Structure formats: C-alpha cells, structure tokens
Predict the structure.
Amino acid sequence: PNLTAGTGITLSTTSGVTTINGTVLSTSQQYYFRTTSNNDNNQTINLNTVLLYNVITYDVPANNYNTTNKHYVVPVAGTWQFFFQAYQNSSVTTGFRLGIYKNGTKQVQTGGSVGNSERCGVILECAVGDTIDVRGAAGSAFVYMKVEFSWFEGYLLQPENNTITSTT
C-alpha cells in the first residue's frame, strides 16, 4: 500500500507479491566490430600503408566497417576502445612501427623492431563519422595477414548500461 508508481511504471500485486514493470525503460545499442584478413600472405607495410583487414568477423549493429577502404566508420559519438594484433613476419632489424589512426592522424603506435607479434590498443573520444584504421607508422616490413595472426577490433565503452538508479 505504500508503493506508488511514477510515469511509465506500473505496479501489480498478486498473492502478496508486487511486480514493477517499466514501460519507458529500454536497452541500449551495443557497438562493436572485429575484422581480420583472408589474404593468407605477407603484406608489405610502409609508412601510411593501411593493413588489409578485409573480412568482417562481426560488426554490430552492422555496416560500419568499410572493407574497401579498410577502416571503421564511427556510428555514434562517445568513448571507444580500439585494438589490433599484427604478426610482423620480417627479419628486418631496423625500426618498424604500426599505429592506430583517427581521420588519418596517428593516435598511438607500437615500438621497436620487427620479428614478432604486436598488439596495441587505445581509448579515443570519437565523433560520428570519424574513421579509424591501422597503418604503417614508421619503417618498412611484412605483416602476415591471416585470420589467426592479425586482426583489428573495437567497441563503444558504456560505463552504465541499462542501469536503474535511485534517481531513475
């Protein structure tokens, strides 16, 4: 008898059990993607060469990864996390670096020489329409572009997802 429902909320009691139903609550949309490559070969990477991530493993909700230009087009503004894995398949001992680029500008890069796998990630504030890709940041080497060796992925960070608080 002490409960009252606000706008968009209904209360019902059956056999002494009160059920609260919200008609204005909805779920948020999740945004994430993962791409890899079916090239099954080395790709020569130089400064600004975009890695050939040409196979979409998943892209939710859909159609945000551009397989022609090999970049992700941000569909909603917010804080995003992006990662890549690249198997550097070269015996070159000179400096070689890969980076994550936003709208053609380097945001973060790997370090050191080639000859091993590199994993790199970054958190970025993005606007709708920003493009994110992975490309050569320095030097020249081979990256083995195959499903289990190299991939690129990202997702929208959501600190509160479908949370009901005391102020809701």
In short: The first strand starts at residue 9 and ends at 14. The two ends are 21 Å apart (CA to CA). The chain has a mean pLDDT of 86.
